[in-house]
């Protein structure tokens, strides 16, 4: 697999669904998911995919900080569904008793362990599975409806906070380089100062949203949020925990021991892009499928980032690595604040200002597993780097795959 196992594309010019934000009173355009993927093999272009995004997908309309009187049933359902999805970490479409208890502990206000068990017994039915539809019916139709809704009192601070960099708090938990170490993420409501834990993968947006736009909406700014997992000049193998609630960053563990690269330090800031996913159902170049993880990024700037840092970057190009028979794109990017960023606009500019950088990246990823008894990795396009436009298309499609993640995987809709 890649060095560690493991949004938003530009708005469409027409055909978008237009909603009215309840707080800003301005139009907000939804982004429709892609139905065909064009970076794969020729026969992949004819593959049909769902034409509607998962209802758990958050857009700017869903994430508006609704006032209580504006929080109608549809908005409540969307917010509750996103909460439910955060605890369905295996993407099965249902919760079992342990996950339901964690869900109630996070969302609830007055649920005891006995109350959780009683609720589980009421909801599980014959199959013992708590789907979102069952939970929603319980929440809306329970005989003691007032108690049920008090238990899940959805207010503006609960999973409906719009993202701004200033509202994101990152917290370390446990001792670093131990199995218990986690980097967790929290959003803070600027009006109430109320905090909620969130997922860096699902809740931090892909695109950087400026408070004040300086370009027309249809002109892309090429600024994306990059989540640093492995800082440059370090070798501890940190990764987003895609199988844990809220997806904190943790160190990869093998046989109970935290993992480090034997090949040597990572020479760049390495990480992932939020709200992206490399689908295991889509055929890419050379007939390989995605690796079931967020898309990876290699940030080539001068500054060493810290584990878990969320930083705006510019996309420059992409390297198509094939790891254990799976496509593992490496998006090459640079911090928008880097001293040389203003000179580097595309992949062809990198050798002019950072000679040897691209060759070193490709060679590092080719051989890093050999010293551990593995084999060298292969590359699509004979190891050729693709330019910025190609890379942005890869990112856009990976974002749409993330939007359709549940449907593409054929999981039960929640």
From TrEMBL:
Residues 1-15 have a biased composition (Basic and acidic residues). GO terms for cellular component: cytoplasm. It is an enzyme of class 3 (hydrolase). CDD domains: pyrophosphatase (cd00412). One of its GO terms (biological process) is phosphate-containing compound metabolic process. It comes from the Eukaryota. Its EC number is 3.6.1.1. Residues 75-110 form the EF-hand domain. GO terms for molecular function: calcium ion binding; inorganic diphosphate phosphatase activity; magnesium ion binding. This is inorganic diphosphatase.
């Amino acid at each position: 697999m890649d060095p560690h196992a493991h949004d938003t594309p530009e708005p469409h010019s027409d055909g978008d669904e237009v909603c009215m934000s309840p707080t800003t009173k301005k139009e907000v355009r939804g982004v429709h998911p892609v139905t065909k993927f064009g970076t794969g093999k020729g026969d992949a272009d004819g593959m049909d995919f769902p034409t509607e995004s998962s209802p758990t997908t958050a857009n700017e309309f869903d994430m508006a900080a609704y006032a209580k009187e504006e929080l109608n049933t549809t908005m409540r359902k969307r917010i509750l569904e996103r909460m439910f999805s955060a605890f369905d970490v295996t993407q099965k479409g249902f919760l079992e008793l342990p996950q339901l208890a964690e869900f109630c502990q996070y969302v609830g206000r007055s649920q005891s362990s006995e109350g959780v068990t009683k609720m589980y017994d009421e909801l599980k039915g014959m199959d013992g599975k708590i789907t979102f539809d069952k939970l929603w019916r319980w929440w809306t139709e329970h005989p003691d409806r007032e108690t049920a809704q008090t238990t899940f009192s959805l207010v503006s601070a609960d999973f409906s906070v719009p993202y701004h960099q200033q509202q994101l708090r990152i917290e370390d938990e446990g001792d670093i380089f131990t199995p218990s170490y986690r980097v967790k993420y929290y959003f803070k409501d600027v009006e109430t100062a109320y905090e909620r834990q969130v997922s860096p993968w699902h809740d931090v947006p892909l695109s950087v949203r400026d408070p004040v736009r300086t370009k027309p909406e249809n002109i892309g700014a090429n600024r994306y949020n990059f989540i640093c997992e492995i800082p440059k000049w370090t070798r501890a193998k940190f990764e987003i925990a895609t199988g844990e609630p809220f997806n904190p960053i943790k160190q990869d563990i093998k046989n109970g021991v935290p993992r480090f690269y034997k090949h040597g330090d990572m020479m760049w800031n390495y990480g992932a892009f939020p709200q992206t996913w490399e689908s295991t159902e889509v055929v890419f170049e050379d007939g390989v499928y995605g690796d079931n993880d967020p898309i990876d990024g290699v940030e080539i700037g001068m500054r060493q980032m810290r584990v878990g840092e969320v930083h705006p970057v510019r996309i420059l190009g992409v390297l198509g690595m094939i790891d254990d028979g799976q496509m593992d794109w490496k998006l090459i990017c640079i911090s928008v604040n880097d001293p040389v960023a203003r000179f580097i606009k595309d992949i062809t500019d990198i050798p002019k200002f950072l000679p040897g950088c691209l060759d070193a990246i490709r060679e590092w990823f080719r051989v890093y597993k050999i010293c551990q008894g593995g084999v060298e990795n292969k590359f699509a396009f004979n190891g050729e780097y693709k330019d910025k436009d190609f890379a942005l298309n890869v990112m856009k499609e990976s974002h749409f795959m993330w939007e359709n993640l549940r449907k593409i995987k054929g999981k039960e809709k929640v």
